[in-house]
Amino acid sequence: MFTYAVVARPDEVSNALKQQTDDILTQHGYTLDETAPDTVLVIGGDGTFIYAVHKYIDVLDRVRFFGIHTGTLGFYTDYRDTDFEEFIQTFLNGGVSEYSYPILEAKTERGTYYGINEIRVENASRTQDMDVYLNGRLFETFRGTGLCVSTQLGSTAYNRSAGGAVIQEGLSLIELTEIAGIHHSKYRSLNSPFILDDKTEISFSSASLKGALLGADSEVFSLDDVTKIDVSVSKEKQVKMLKGRNVYYFDRLHSLF
Ligand code: NAP
Questions:
Q1: Residues 110-141: pLDDT tens digits?
Q2: Catalytic pick from 11, 22, 33, 46?
Q3: Does domain 103-237 have CATH number 3.40.50.300?
Q4: Is residue 183 left, alpha or beta, with left meaning phi > 0 and alpha meaning psi from -120 to 50?
Q5: 46 an active-site residue?
Q6: Structural domain boundaries in the chain
Q7: Does domain 3-95 match CATH 3.40.50.10330?
Q8: Does residue 156's CB lie within 6 angstroms of at least one atom of ligand 1?
């Protein structure tokens, strides 16, 4: 028996599509399972998709996500609300293929956190200094507001707002971007977005991260008692997404601006 759950953005259009999805899937013999479903149908935007992945982060190995956007095109979704009939029929007819995407993992003395778009270390209350290690070797000392490590999929999100480059789909890369870095005669760091091999292990270390926050997509955690953050692509977790049509990446990107 196939199981499903629906995660919808709380707006009128998304809620109406959620109701239709529930009705159609139930009629076709699917069973609602909010805890560990086979498939999560996501109705909303890229933000909703990320929320859904975090909601099922503990059972990612068994869940696949299939999304429809109730706005523009989106980077996690290939259908818009006007394509709902095609979206649901493609799913029911098994006309979907499964793809896996990497997730970033951040480990601190306090715990482990995951980012589908990005992991950020930010301090809005004072200048933050951090030593940056790449694969265990000291690379630079950063001073400023913070640093952002993004995935390829997240490169169009916060990373792009921080001046990072967009990474074309299909490339196994991550990106390290400064957030308001300070650069003058005394303080020097790369001052440029740095695109790295996705096997790179990045560490941030500081004598004090008081006031700093670790941002894992839309979730934030205090770094007050933390001195080191290790960020890398997770070896354990990946996001499995279903795709029913091929959207040309440059069209998707163009719809962003
Ligand atoms: P949110 O409201 O869910 O998202 C903020 C905006 O970022 C929405 O317009 C969302 O698109 C868009 N977005 C999310 N992932 C994207 C991606 N991979 N590529 C392009 N656009 C994307 O905000 P949130 O819940 O606080 O944070 C979720 C994510 O939003 C974060 O991971 C962060 O990357 C991004 N964000 C960016 C900024 C910024 O650029 N200054 C600020 C806050 C958050 P939809 O409308 O399709 O949901």
A1: 999 999 999 999 999 999 999 999 999 999 99
A2: 46
A3: no
A4: beta
A5: yes
A6: 3-95, 103-237
A7: yes
A8: yes
